[in-house]
Structure formats: structure tokens, C-alpha cells
Design goal:
alpha+beta; seven-stranded mixed sheet; 11% strand
């Protein structure tokens, strides 16, 4: 993560330095060249390691592209006498001061991306691929926390630089000839801030590495190669509208001492497992052999080779008096309406994987009830908010492994300018249907 941060900030430094050393008209060209280099680096990151977080390089890439677009557009409008610009903003004059444009643009872009951090396309694709799922445990928490910290840090830094440079420009700068002090404020102050930021994160991540190493939480390449195939099984046992849970579960880094989770979890040292074997395992764990097994969904762990986590539903019938049977494993039956209430009001009481699985289940079922595959509303009443329960889950024929309805939930007729965006995505080769495939 530090290398990605360092590369991103070094490219900003390179753009600022080239803008100072070469004629001003070269500034947007230098920005586009740096953006192209950063884009190829992002593609390389994704090819080499699917788990690498590219949120910060992506944010800087957007900043460079927006800076280039704004600078070129403003100068074209100035050439056409549409707008009036001071010489400090015109690439055909000297002095041209790129930091007056770059820093505010970076502040605005990164602020918007931080506010939309959970809805950004690259983050959505990461979660859908499983690289950002709770299955990864602490690694996912580190990536998420540090990525958001980097964005907050840059947002603060660009905000402070923008304020300092614009105050100096408006109050102290004499628009006759830029002297050494002016260039120190306009250029080298920004460069120094970037370098100090890189040094801060260098020490931060080195200390983080030492902390993980001290707690024996780092797996070496040799140890990673020795790990054999592992398949983790996770079952949700259902009776009517009740799910069997362990209310006294534990989870690392939870704010509560106990969390609610399914007690039916196991590990098999194989790369694949048959449905018959899966049913035998859950029948043995519950003590009930006549249940209905249904595959929920599964994901491979991108950090560990030949490792995957599979989720299943196991539907069992109630007793003749309508009550749920007693199971062999310790736990209790909980009404799913109560689970949904906890999920909506205090999700930290649930295990993180349970929260993730519930989100997927609810999103797919509710989205299919509201929208068609094209993303159009089935019911034009926007106030229509359907609900679901475990009876719906059992009767449903939906493929919960397929991300189709997840994508529809992210891009549908409730999205502003939906039809225009859909046409644009189709023109750009975004696929059929809702344009997200």
C-alpha cells in the first residue's frame, strides 16, 4: 500500500516539476502522461495481485485527468474570449501556476470519492469478486481502514494546501513577476508536503509490519506454499421463519464480547466436495437427516491458493405441533424478523460474515422483487418497499451465486439519468441489459 501511495504522489511531484522546468503549455501534457503511466500501473497491479487495493492510485488518476480536462477547457474558452483568466491560469503565458488549479481539484475530487467510497465501481467490483469480503478477516479490515485513511489524509492535505496557496495568491502575491519566495509557496511547498506524507506513511506501514510480525500474523511465501487445499463450509439451518444461531459466538476485533452467528461451520482439507458429502456433514451436525440442502453461494479466498468458503441453507421441517426440533449442536432458534431488526439497528451484534451474507441475500431477493433484469421498476410506485422472510428464501428459484441482481441494485431506474447512462454504457461496450455486465 505504501508503494502505491508513493508512486501516486511521486507522479504528482513529477507533474509539478515538469510544469516548472518546461514551458507552461507542457503542463496538461505532463499531467496526461503521468495519468497514462498511473493507469498502466493500476492495470499491472490488478493482473499481478487481485487482492491489491488500488483505491488511492485510482483517486489520483481521476485528479490528474480532471486537472488536464479543466486546464485545457479553461484555456480554450479563454482563447475564444468566452471567459477571462489571469496570466497565472493561462498555459500560453509565464508565469503559469498549476498548483492554483491542481490542489483545489484534488481536494474536490478526493472529497467526492471519499463520500462515495462504498459506491465506487472499483470498490464494488472488488467486493463482488470476494477480494473485499469479511472472509479475509483482518487483511480486509487493514485494506479498508488504510485506504480510507489515505483518502482522508490526502483530502486534509489538499484542503490545507489549497487554502494556504490561495490566501498567499490573493493577499501577498504581486502580479508583476514571480520571485523565489512565490515559487517556493506555489510549487515547492506542495512538493515538500507530498514528500513528508510519503515519509509519514513509510514509518506507519513499517510499524504496522512489525506489529503483525510480532503477533505472528504474517505468512511467509514458504508457509503459503505448504498450505494445502482447504474448503470451509458454513450452514444456515432454517425451520419455518427461524434460523438456528449461537448467541454466544466470538469474533476477533468485534466491539462486543459475544456475537450472533451460525454454529454450523467446518473445514475440509479438499479442493472440492460433493453435495452428498456436504449433506452428510450437516445431517451429522444437526442430528436431522431429512432436511433440504440448498447451495447459497461461495467464494475463493484470493489471498490463499486452493482455499474457498461455501455457504449452504439447510431447511428442516417443524414438529407436528409446529415447533422447531431440538438440534444436536448447542444454540437456539431465533425468529428471522428479529435477526433482520438487529441487522438494521445494530449489525455489530452479528458476526461480520453473517452481516455480509444477509446483505447479499436481502439485496438479491428485494432487487428481484422491485426491478426487472433491465433495471426498470416492475411497480412504478417509488414508495413500494417489499419485505422478505425465510419462506421466500426457500421458495425462491434465484441463483444467489450470480451477481446479476447485485449489479441491478447498483444501477437501475432509480439512478439519476438512468436511461442516458444505460445508452452511454451500451455505446461504450458496457453490455446488454442494465449495462453493468
Amino acid at each position: 500500500m505504501w508503494k502505491r501511495l508513493a508512486l501516486s504522489l511521486l507522479l504528482l511531484i513529477a507533474m509539478m516539476t515538469l510544469s516548472k522546468l518546461f514551458p507552461p503549455i507542457f503542463s496538461p501534457v505532463a499531467s496526461l502522461l503521468c495519468a497514462a503511466f498511473l493507469y498502466t500501473s493500476i492495470i499491472s497491479y490488478r493482473r499481478e495481485n487481485r487482492t491489491s487495493c488500488i483505491l488511492l492510485p485510482y483517486a489520483i488518476l481521476v485528479c490528474l485527468l480532471v486537472y488536464s480536462f479543466v486546464t485545457i477547457l479553461a484555456n480554450i474558452l479563454w482563447m475564444w474570449n468566452v471567459i477571462s483568466l489571469s496570466h497565472e491560469f493561462v498555459v500560453f503565458s509565464d508565469p503559469f501556476i498549476p498548483s492554483l488549479i491542481l490542489n483545489p481539484i484534488c481536494f474536490v475530487c478526493i472529497s467526492i470519492m471519499y463520500m462515495r467510497r462504498k459506491k465506487l465501481g472499483i470498490c464494488v467490483e472488488c467486493r463482488l469478486s470476494g477480494a473485499g469480503s469479511p472472509d479475509q478477516g483482518r487483511l480486509n479490515g487493514i485494506f479498508t481502514h488504510e485506504s480510507y485513511l489515505q483518502l482522508r489524509n490526502l483530502m486534509f492535505m489538499f484542503g490545507m494546501l489549497s487554502a494556504a496557496i490561495w490566501i498567499y495568491y490573493l493577499e501577498f502575491y504581486i502580479k508583476i513577476n514571480a520571485n523565489a519566495r512565490d515559487w517556493y509557496i506555489f510549487t515547492w511547498l506542495t512538493v515538500i508536503a507530498f514528500l513528508l506524507d510519503e515519509i509519514y506513511f513509510l514509518f506507519r506501514y513499517y510499524n504496522l509490519y512489525l506489529d503483525l510480525k510480532e503477533n505472528n500474523e504474517i505468512i511467509s511465501e514458504d508457509e503459503l506454499a505448504d498450505i494445502g487445499a482447504q474448503t470451509y463450509l458454513r450452514f444456515y439451518v432454517v425451520c419455518c421463519n427461524n434460523v438456528y444461531v449461537d448467541p454466544h459466538g466470538t469474533e476477533d476485533y468485534s466491539v462486543y464480547d459475544e456475537v450472533i452467528d451460525t454454529p454450523f461451520q467446518t473445514r475440509c482439507s479438499v479442493s472440492g466436495i460433493s453435495t452428498a458429502e456436504v449433506k452428510r456433514i450437516i445431517s451429522q451436525m444437526t442430528g436431522i437427516s431429512g432436511g433440504e440442502l440448498r447451495f447459497f453461494f461461495g467464494r475463493k479466498n484470493p489471498n490463499l491458493p486452493n482455499t474457498s468458503l461455501l455457504r449452504y441453507f439447510y431447511f428442516i421441517e417443524p414438529l407436528p405441533d409446529g415447533s422447531c426440533p431440538t438440534l444436536r449442536t448447542d444454540g437456539e432458534w431465533m425468529d428471522y424478523d428479529e435477526i433482520q431488526h438487529i441487522y438494521a439497528t445494530d449489525p455489530k451484534r452479528l458476526a461480520s460474515i453473517s452481516v455480509s451474507d444477509t446483505s447479499r441475500l436481502a439485496t438479491i431477493i428485494l432487487t428481484e422483487k422491485i426491478f426487472d433484469e433491465e433495471g426498470n421498476r416492475k411497480n412504478r410506485l417509488r414508495s413500494y418497499n417489499p419485505t422478505f422472510n425465510l419462506y421466500d428464501v426457500r421458495k425462491s428459484k434465484l441463483d444467489f451465486q450470480d451477481d446479476k441482481w447485485i449489479r441491478v441494485s447498483l444501477f437501475n431506474s432509480d439512478t439519476p439519468f438512468f436511461r442516458f447512462k444505460r445508452r452511454w454504457r451500451r455505446m461504450m461496450g458496457g453490455g446488454r441489459g442494465n449495462g453493468t455486465r
